[in-house]
What does this fold into?
Amino acid sequence: MLSYIKGEVVKKGIDYLVLENNNIGYHVNTSFSTLENVSEKEKITILTYMHIREDILALYGFLTSDEIELFKKLITVNGIGPRVGLSVLSTYNANTIKEIILKEDAARLSKVPGIGKKTASKIILELKDKVGTVEELKGSEIVISNEMSDVAEALTALGFSYIEVKKTLGNMELTGKSENEIIKEALKNMNRQG
It folds into this structure.
């Protein structure tokens, strides 16, 4: 399975992009928020999910671990396929979706194309305990700068959630410290919390 692809964006469509890596162009279905944050000719890393069925082989990808994790959770709900999961992530950003689920706002979720009230209620019921807490969402509003994205990537690769990482980095004094020092300090802080 493909976990991610690093490459150059050679084309942006309405709901997909084509990413070139080693002279191969990967057609990656993606959300509006990922498309808004990339431009053609830009080199990016896209986190991927491969959907395989008898008649379908499709690649879905997102810029953030928050988005791909939420996408994977959405498609575990019976009746929600990758296309509808993508529709949800194209209508609202990851944090808004989590907030909608936690606040059990079925009316707002049913505004997503392809989701009626019944399906919205089903998503809320099945994912309510899997998307974190309102407190975690507030902490995740901290934005990680580009310089810190490598640090955040290293920490999430060690198994910490993106929300935990953002919260921890947001509470640390980072000035004048090397990436390694920041990672060590963040690990200490997160292990204390855990």
The mean pLDDT is 85. The longest helix spans residues 179-193. The beta strands are 4-12, 16-21, 24-29, 43-53, 56-62. Residues 20 and 49 are 17 Å apart (CA to CA).
